[in-house]
Structure formats: C-alpha cells, structure tokens
Amino acid sequence: MSDLILEQRTASQTDKKTRRKRGNRTFFLFVCIWVIIICSGILGAKWYTERIQQTLSADLERQTASQIAAMQQTYEARMLQLETDYTADLGELKAKVDALNELLTFTKDNAASKTDNSNKLYTQLNEVKKQLNELKKSLDVLK
Predict the structure, then answer these.
(1) Which residue stretches, if any, does this entry annotate as coiled coil (predicted)?
(2) Which residue of 27, 31, 64, 141 has the smallest Cβ count within 10 Å?
C-alpha cells in the first residue's frame, strides 16, 4: 500500500508540474498575444496620426497658396487702379497749372503795360485805316 500511495503522490506531483507548465505556457502565450495586439494598435494609431497630419498639412498649404494668390491679385489690381488715378489726377493738375500760368502771364502783360497795349492797338488800327484808304485810292485809280 505504501507503494500505491507513493505512486499516487508521484503521479499527482507530475500532474501538477505538467499543469503548471501548461498553465505557464498558456499564460505566456496569452501575454505575448496581448503585447502584440497592443503594439500593433499603438503603431496603427501612430501611422494613422501621421497620415492625417500630412493630409491636413497639404490642405493647409494649398489653401494658404490660394489665399496668397488672391491677395496678390487684389493688391496688383489696387496698385494699378492707384497708378491710373494718380496719372489722371496728375494730368488734371498739370492742365490746371498750365491754365493758371497762362492766366498769370496774360494778367501780368496786361497789368504792366495796359496803357502801352492800348496805344499800340490804337496805332496799329490807325495804320490799318491808312493802308485801307490807300488801297481804296489805288482801286479807284485802277477803275
């Protein structure tokens, strides 16, 4: 009987060791699978985040480029409009200055020698009358 008890004890100890080995292997396999799943989840999240970041960066760059182009067109149009208005205003101002200069020159000439001009006109008028009379006499002689 003691042999039987000894055999049972030895068999039960062997069973326990086998169970422990199987349990340890199963637990180790379970932990490895979970570590693999967790690592793949982290790597997948990192890849997805980088992909989203690249997409957003490209979209932002495209939008910025289009806004800069629109602002540049608006700026160039305004500059062209300002240049056109400036040239037109400058032309108007030049015409006004020229007219004012003419008026000032005329006023200066009239103010400085108003009596001389009147006398010159009267003298020239008399000379024209004399020439007209001479032409009339010449015409009468020719008839």
Answers:
(1) 90-138
(2) 141
Distance (Å, whole) CA 86 – CA 39: 69
DSSP 143: -
Q: Which residues of 2-36 are buried (b: 16+ CB within 10 A; e: fewer)?
A: eeeeeeeeeeeeeeeeeeeeeeeeeeeeeeeeeee
Q: What is the pLDDT along the chain (143 residues), one digit of tens a residue?
A: 556 565 665 655 555 555 566 678 889 999 999 999 999 999 999 999 999 999 999 999 999 999 999 999 999 999 999 888 888 888 888 888 887 777 777 666 666 555 556 667 667 777 777 887 787 777 777 65
Cα 91 to Cα 21: distance, rounded to the nearest angstrom? 104
User: Closest by alpha carbon to 34, among 19, 26, 21, 48?
Assistant: 26
- Tokens representing 36? 């693999």
Structure tokens at 11: 């068999």
